[in-house]
Amino acid sequence: MSGGTFVGMPAFPEAAHEAVNNKTLRANLRHATHTIRGKRAKAVAEVSDWAELREAGKRIKDHTLRHLDRYLVQLEESVMAAGGVVHWAADAEEANRIVVDLVRMTGESEVVKVKSMATQEIGLNEALEAEGIAAYETDLAELIVQLGKDRPSHILVPAIHRNRGEIRDIFAREMSEWGRPAPEGLTDTPAELAEAARLHLREKFLRAKVGVSGANFMVAETGTLVVVESEGNGRMCLTLPETLISVVGIEKIVPTWQDLEVFLQTLPRSSTAERMNPYTSTWTGTTDGDGPQTFHLVLIDNGRTDTLADEVGRQALRCIRCSACLNVCPVYERAGGHAYGSVYPGPIGAILSPQLRGTASEIDASLPYASSLCGACYEVCPVAIDIPEVLVHLRERIAQGGPATREGNKVVLKPAKGHAAERAAMRAARWAFSHPGALRTGQRLASRTRRFHPRTLPGPGRAWSGTRDLPAVPAEPFRDWWQRTNGGKDTRK
Q: What pTM value is reported for the model?
């Protein structure tokens, strides 16, 4: 029942090369991202204190991460006091084993799912399928991805790479194999596509005894979980089944209900450009005669505490999964989400995936370079994650120390492979800038030999200069110009 996975993905440049040559994909991405970013800008402009809300969100997240141990214990106590059961999972394998065992205990062989990045991160659908348990995605975009045996390519709109015609063909071809078939004569109008999905999913909602969800937020003081969505499928999954299993990353905590108020203003405007989400579902444990009678919360680490130990990189754990950074990123717009080799694509994926998974693989070591460092992602982030800063930090870590791997209980950096030339160039530059005489000589030599400078670089450098113009060397070095025009005097006031 699973779609494609990201296992064995090539490095970003190779994957992106294929994507940028797909005209249909680029047209789909350009139309969708420009539409979403335009609507978001209008929604944000309505809020006079947006900058203050953004700063408040940043501070709340930073405070929570600094005291995560305390708030996790408080959350566990609150959930258990409300009738829930809490499970701790160190990695994806443990989390999947816990969920599989919980479903088996119910005697059921199928589950309905709310859209969840965490369950995609750990490969839960594949783990359930391996044990004979069918997992049905109920979010419209996730349903499209699942029926198409595809991979998600966007955080908010996983099927953003598909157009309406492609979706119609997927529904007509695949729905009958998963349950209720698509209506005869289905067209590609949004209303008909939505109705086909609604009819297909309705029987699953009414039949399922087990629901699986993630959570946008967890409130430590009350043990309340929160899911925000726009279609109502989440509400059905969270209320109709007899057993609810929520799989959530440990960083999704906020300390109090008052803190939650900030994010319920910034998340919908940044993601769907709405003033508030049409469906905001909250639940605290279990209640007799109302909703699921058994509730399990599976808290997953899966690389988060390693990320937390990095003073620069830990910013990524502030992320509230709004996807605003994807919609403004020129690299994402051209390469699409699949090229990132992760359920977290775009700028946030370029800094989150290498930290959660380490940089031992080809794809993860290449992700910090999948950016022009234009800074648009930082400008739109509702919790002020300085993504360019983290990208540069990770590039430095990869170039200097190589991939991060786990040895026992420690994460260590192995010697880098394939970055020797870059390290040598940086060492040469550092030496030159620390020796003014040598730098001055080099500058003068460069200015006097400008007529011999090639327009393109030789060898491996040809790929770089083939798409860039080398800057012209000035007629004289700045130091000479300064000496000639100011006599070497300090003219600062």
A: 0.83
